[in-house]
User: Fold this.
Amino acid sequence: MTDEAFHRHDTGSLHPERPARLRAIDAGVEQAGLPLVRINPKPASPEMLHMVHSSAYVEAIERFCRSGGGHLDADTIVGPNSWDAAVLAAGAGPTAIEVMRQSDETFAFLAVRPPGHHARYDRAMGFCLFNNVAVSAAMLRGNGERVAILDWDVHHGNGTQESFSTDPGVLYLSLHQFPYYPYQGDYDEIGDGPGRGTVVNVPFPAGTAGDGYRYAWEKVITPVLEQYSADWLLISSGYDAHAEDPLAELRLEADDFGWMAAEAAKLMPASRTVVFLEGGYHLPALTASSTATLQGLAGGRPVVTDSYFSPPGAFDAVDQAARALADFWVL
Assistant:
């Protein structure tokens, strides 16, 4: 699912979150060689946005974009067309879910921008305006459904975690570099109040590679997802943990994303899986990684060949996360 409006979200020629990312994703989708149904999203309604953002914030973003835009913070830039892109990006998940309910289509892959997982209740940050995955999760929760959000972007999805930290009906799992922007997501952040145990953070040190991620799946991600029994799986699919990405220091390769997608496909029916594009700023890596993701979700089994190996601290981080969650899950 995508739309030409996403290309008109103008962040400036030197900004890493640029329209060329979508052209790289389009190439990856084509290379995946899968039968596709291309759908244009419907814009999110104000009621949808207000599930996760204050009405004052939503109105302020619209006014700022329509007045010409500029810098919302040092990293987050909008132009006059950014409002239309942002409400379509937030509405893409609900559109996909509606289509999947009616036709039992397989998984949805949402090639949207701006990304969303850093957007907070009343603040844009990290290139994000509205929290696209959180809007979809909140809508599903309104229907009484249980949601798992798997976030493998290299940056912690602080906005998503904050949206659901007290809600036991949403499981948030994040694998990310730490300490690193946005400087949240340590292993002892496990949720609050009735949501304790439903926030799962695996904070990897710089240099972590695919072997560290596979250890995290074995020790934490797979057992928690199996025990949670979600009705829907929403994936915040950033590709900036790739070894070639200029904005981070992890060392995943394209097939590592395919491997994670294939593992996810074993745990959740394809007709209940929605993938949201988040970060990823090296264009060839975006193409290769999105191809691998689609093929993994479709049942392919990528052959992982390790060019890099994780430092010992990566495995320690997984063990720490498992200990922090031991009172809530059988790990």
